[in-house]
Every structure is written in C-alpha cells, then in structure tokens.
Design a protein that fits this description.
Chains A, B: Belongs to the terpene synthase family. Chains A, B: InterPro entries: Isoprenoid_synthase_dom_sf, Terpene_cyclase-like_2. Chains A, B: One of its GO terms (molecular function) is terpene synthase activity. Chains A, B: It is an enzyme of class 4 (lyase). The structure is a homodimer of 350-residue chains. The first copy, chain A, contains 15 helices and two strands. With 350 residues, the first copy, chain A, is mostly helical. Chain A has a single domain, classed as Farnesyl Diphosphate Synthase (Orthogonal Bundle), CATH 1.10.600. In chain A, strands 1-2 form a two-stranded parallel sheet. Chain A is globular and about 50 Å long. At the A-B interface, helix 5, helix 7 and helix 8 of A face helix 5, helix 7 and helix 8 of B.
Chain lengths: 350, 350
C-alpha cells in the first residue's frame, strides 16, 4: 500500500467519543443487526468516527443523525448490496430499493412493515426533517436515489459477469460508492444551507463529483491491496484497467494512482480558485468539508489514530500525526483532462 | 371511457403550429427513427402540442427544447423501456440507462459513441444549459434519474411476472411514468426559476407529486380503456386493484376513478390554499403549470381540438371547447387520506 497524495490536514470532531457511545445506543434501539456478531461488525465500522472526520466543526445533534445514516449505509450495503441474499438479482434489489427510497422520502408512515432497514431509515428521515432545512432534506433524498441507482447498475454488471470500461465504471462509481448521500450530509452537519445558485453551479457540482471519485477510487485501491489475489474479479478501478489494457496488476495499480492524483490535483487547484472568489460562508464550509471528506476517508480506512495533542489529549496509539497514509507529493505531474468523456468537462471549469 | 373530474380550463400555446414544424425539423436532424414508419409514429405523438398545453404562456425557445425532450422521451420509451429489445432484462436496461443519464449530466463530450439516443439527449442537455439556469438544469437531471430508476423498477417487476401492491405501484408510478422530468421542465419553459425554499417545501413537493400521480393514473385509465381485454396483464392501476382485491374489471375501474378523484380534489384544495399565501411569481406560474399539466395531458390524449375562438382562430374540428374528456363533478365525495402510506402525508399538508 502506497501513501495517497493528499496535502490536507487531518481533522476530527472533538466529541467523537461521546458521539460514538450515543450512536451505539441508537444501534441497539433500531437493531439493524440480527446477532452479536453482526452487531460487533456494525459497531466496528466506526461510522461515528468516520463522519466526525468529515465534519470536524459540525453541530453535534445534526452530525449524530448523519452518523446514524453512515451506520445504516454500511449495514444496508452488507446485507442487501454485497454478499447478501438480494445482491445476486438486480430485479430483487430494485423492488426492494425502490420502496426503501420512498420510505426515506415519506418517512411519516410505515411504507413497508417488518423491515428493520425501512424502520431505521424512516427514523433517520424524520430526524433530518427536524434538524435540516427542506432544501437540505431534498438534496439528501435525491443523492440517496443516485446512490441506489448506481448500486443497481453495479449489480446489473455483476449479474452479467460484465467488467465495465473505464468510462462506464467512472460514471457508475460516482453513484454506487455512496458518495452522493455521504457528501449531501456535509451541509446538514455544518448546520448551514448552501444557496442553490452556488450549490448547483457547474464548479461546485464538479468539485463535489471530484471528491466523490477520489474517495471511491481510494476505497478501490485500499480494498484491492487488502483482498488482492488473482481470483479478485470485482468491479474495481484496478480490475477495470487490467481488463481494458490487458495489463498485469502492477501496471494497473500504477496507472490507477496516476489517474487518481490527476483528479486530486485538479480538485485542489479548482477549489483554491473557487475559494478566492466571493462565496457564502456556507459554501466556504462545504468546500472545506469536501477536503475533510477525502482526507477523513483515508484516515478512517487506515485506522489512523484519532487524536493529536492540539487539545492536550494524547494520541491513542501510533504516531501523533497520522501521515502514514498520505503524502504531499503526487505520483504524477501529468496534467490536462483525463481521457474519460463522462468527466472531461471538469477540466473546462474555472 | 368516462370523463375525468378536472375543473380546469383547457389552454395551449398560440405558437403550437410553428413549434410543431420546427420540432419535426429537429427530429429529422437527430434521427431517432430508423425508418419512415417510426418517423410517422414519432411525429404522431404530437409532443410539441403536448408541451404547448403544459406551458401555454411559455417562452418559445425554451418551450421548444422541452418539446424536443418529450419527443425523445416517447422514442426512448418505445425503443428501450417497452416492447424494445432491452426491455426484457432489467440488467441490460440499467447499464444502458446509467450511461444515458450520465450523458445528460455531462452533455459536452460523447459519453457513448454511435447511440442515436445518447447523441440526441446530449443535444437537448446542451440546449438546456443555454436556456435554463444551473438550478433548473440540476432539477431536470435529478428528475430524469428518478424517472429512469422508476422504469428500471417497473421492468424488474415485469421480469419476475410480479403485480405490485397498490402501495408499491403508487411509489413506483411517481417515477416510472415520466412525470418528474416532464414537470421539471415547466419552470424552464416559463423562463422563471422557482426559489429553492419554495420548490423544496413539503407543500410544493406534495403538489408536484399529486399532479404526477393524477396524470399517471389518467394515462393508466386511458390505456386500459383502449387495450382492455382479459389478456391485459400490464402493471396498471386497474390491474393492481383487480389483483389486490380479486375484483372484476368494473369494480376496479370504479375504485380507480374514486382514488384518482380523491387525489385530484386534494390537489385543487391545497393548491388554492398555497396560492393564497405569499409566493414568488415563478411559484405562482409553476402551480398554474401543474394544473395545465393535468388538464393538458387529458386533452392531448383524447386528441382534443387545439383551438377555441379566443384568438379568432376557428377550431380544427369537433366542439369548440373540448370538454368531452373532463367534468366538473367528482366521482366521489369521500375525503381524507388514501390508505397508501407512501402518499398519506399529502393529507397532512396545509
């Protein structure tokens, strides 16, 4: 595993421990797990920590609801999108996911009885209506549909034993990795609504997508490093490149880092550019949040220590500054648009 | 076929004829058809007329782009969602629809070569970027994804030979009938952006969904009347009710009209209520547009005459006021929330 190019400071919300215990209480109340093993696995996702890294100065109550959704998302992914019983058949997934989405959109009445995922998601949906604005809620529910649509697409490829091209994989991965709902919660956790004209501008749309893609590819590279063996045939950036170019793993991993760093560099430049222009405070915090998301995703996945000594709290273990997973040096100085039509427009933004 | 309860005036844009000829020129340029028969069928959808009824005082240039999308939507539905080669397998549909959606989101580069639907949709996407605001474009693309997700869900049911329950069917139909993108174009055609706080408020979300559902159920009732025979096993409001209650066609049709009229009555009351409260001009026009959509959808489907004598233009045929398809009398005075959890919240709005 090589370090990721990510010249951004690590950050975490100071209330992470309290948040985590409250979230475990919530988990025991909504019971997404069926047994102790599943419960341990779910608690062990450290979802509260994950989102505390995304919104290090967030409002505690809203941040906690966001953390609930992250736990929910991991449990759902595990039970219904991956190895679970519904994952082999995209049709089964679609009928279930369609109702799930509607349960979130209309969380006040039991859209579907006796499904613990529906009940818990509706609990989260009602909480969002309490702590977020109608615009933020709508953004989150739209993003949630984008994710479920992406997962269905991924399952469809799997059902046909189909390895997508790089272009298709990139378009699909912008949704399927859960990035859209995860990032839609940034402004909710921050407690500040980004004005629509800013949020829907091409530049901010592009920056949001870049953050999603970098984090998704980072997950791909991390899970490839963990699970790599010749039998790994998952839809994954490395396997996509191997299949497209008939490369061996080393060549594909090299190219994956180059592609990822090109997007990361462009993200940093464009964000800097946008930050220098007039913007609401909510947008400033949102753009900062996109950086926290990329960095936080890496640190969380590496099990990086949570604390440094800024607040006089000693590090739990390991080095005080968890830089092991990150570097300030990009793998490449290759510039210009990636040869992927679905995202080439990012390089035309200014 | 009984008349629909719809106490709203018919309306149509005065430039409908010119619009139609320009649209036929566009169709011949983008060539969604493969032969003369398909071309005639596509021209015969009268999509320009359809949208001229939705936005009778719309800006001509924007209205024309909206009409292009309606033609595109009918052609796409015909070729890829219905009887077409991709419709039997939800997986094939998903991989195609995923790329189609991305092509719309990123219309500047050829996301997929040699697909006439992609090329035409990207043409429409670029036109929207010219004539609509970034917020309106984002609303349309989100609505477009909602539609494709709904279609995939419907195909998934079909693949399993599954007749959904009324609750599932209602949730699915809110997306699958194409209502979301069609109504997202109202404010584009009107040339006025509805402020986000108004558009995303629960009341306006609810009213938008009610208009979508009434129009979708009207389509169901109209196509059932056209195609009704005992072999009709499509997912359709009438068949859903027959299957749920073990009813015969007449009982199911009766109940379908009652359900539809309950939603229609609530729509009219709530819209009246909302219109009396302070609102931007853009919202006023949007709420009017929802009414034009319900009425226009009926008139268009019945092939109602286009003109009355308001502008001194004689009616093409038939009665001057095309009231044959509509009545001011509801089928029912039954009130209160429908027993459908996915939409029961509409009756809590004020």
């Amino acid at each position: 595993m090589r370090p990721f190019f990510c010249p951004l400071e690590p950050a975490i919300h100071p209330s992470v421990d309290a948040m985590e215990s409250r979230c475990v209480g919530w988990l025991d109340r909504v019971r997404l797990h069926r047994d102790e093993r599943q419960r341990a696995r779910l608690v062990g996702t450290n979802s509260a920590e994950f989102y505390c890294r995304f919104a290090p100065s967030g409002d505690e109550a809203s941040l906690e609801v966001a953390a609930h959704w992250v736990y929910w998302g991991f449990a759902f992914d595990d039970a219904r999108c991956g190895r679970g019983e519904l994952s082999a058949d995209p049709s089964e997934f679609l009928t279930m996911a369609g109702l799930m989405q509607r349960a979130l959109e209309a969380p006040w009445d039991p859209v579907c009885e006796n499904d613990r995922f529906v009940t818990a998601l509706q609990d989260i949906g009602r909480d969002f209506h309490r702590c977020a604005t109608p615009v933020q809620v709508r953004r989150f529910t739209d993003a949630h549909r984008t994710w479920l649509f992406g997962v269905a697409w991924q399952l469809a490829n799997r059902a046909h034993g189909r390895m997508p091209s790089l272009g298709e994989y990139t378009a699909m991965r912008l949704g399927s990795a859960g990035g859209p709902p995860t990032l839609a919660m940034l402004e909710i956790a921050n407690g500040e609504e980004v004005p629509a004209a800013e949020m829907d501008s091409l530049v901010v749309r592009g920056l949001t997508e870049m953050a999603i893609l970098v984090a998704s590819w980072d997950n791909d590279l991390q899970s490839y490093a963990k699970e790599a063996d010749e039998a790994n045939t998952d839809q994954n950036l490395v396997n996509v490149l191997k299949a497209a170019h008939d490369w061996d793993t080393e060549q594909a991993v090299d190219e994956a880092y180059v592609l990822r760093d090109q997007v990361m560099s462009h993200f940093l430049q464009l964000r800097e550019c946008r930050t220098r222009r007039p913007a609401s405070r909510a947008l400033h915090r949102y753009l900062e949040g996109l950086g926290h998301a990329i960095r936080g995703n890496i640190d969380w996945a590496l099990g990086a220590p949570r604390y440094d000594d800024i607040d006089g709290i000693p590090a739990q273990s390991g080095p005080r500054h968890p830089l092991v997973g990150c570097t300030d040096q990009p793998t490449t100085h290759r510039a210009g648009p990636l040869p992927i039509p679905a995202i080439a427009w990012w390089w035309g933004l200014a």
